[in-house]
Amino acid sequence: MNDLGINFELNFELESLDEDSPTPSPSNRFKELSSQEIDKIAEGKNEKATLYNTTWGVKLFKEWCTAKGKDSNFEALPHEELNCLLRVFYAEINVMSDREFQCANNVFRGVLKQMKKAGLDRSQHKSPIAAADLKKMITALDVETPHGLLRLTWFYLEYYFCRRGREGLRLLKKDSFKFCKDDGDRNFVP
Question: 121: helix, coil or strand?
């Protein structure tokens, strides 16, 4: 019995495997295929769109190699040299926002989505700060002092505007925020 409650039984008699019993003739069991038929089967493993995009990508890489004065016969290059070329190629083209790469990016996003659905996403998200803990943190800051007010303001900046950690914090400037006034003539950041 398996997890689905289905019982599979394999019923056969061992005597049927005796060497004396007739075996199917090789002509019925094994097909004769031409090399063209085998090539056609091998080509069928990829979708036409994948083949088209791969051909286009190789053509683009060859054009880039030629424009940079590099050897466009990259298939014959040693792996280390090809790795260095690809490294520069990837850095010099804008793959994620270039319209020419939209199809490839859609496939990439689709693969990421499938991995998440399959449970293969290993990203670890921090649990949100509990409301009670947030209240404790804010009340622990003495906002009546300049130092306490600075700490609270800094906390709010990080909490509301730096959601991916501190990676963009150093880039914030006064003009990074748009200040508006509400009906009560109080400033706010939309």
Answer: coil
Each residue's pLDDT tens digit, 69-115: 988 888 888 889 888 888 888 888 776 777 777 777 787 788 888 88
Q: Which among 36, 37, 55 is positioned nearest to 47, based on CA atoms?
A: 55
AA identity, residue 188: F
Evaluate whether 160 touches 154 at the Cβ level (below 8 Å): no
In the block, residue with structure tokens 């990203």? 123
Task: Look up residue 95 and give its amino acid.
Answer: V
From the CA atom positions of the chain, what is the Rg in Å? 32
pLDDT above 70 covers what percent of the chain? Answer: 78
| Residue whose token pair is 């926002």 | 97
| 115-143 b/e (C-beta count within 10 Å ≥ 16 → b) | eeeeeeeeeeeeeeeeeeeeeeeeeebee
DSSP annotation string for 95-114: TTT-GGGHHHHHHHHHHHHH
Beta carbons of 140 and 134 less than 8 angstroms apart: no
| Cα gap 108→114, rounded to integer Å | 10
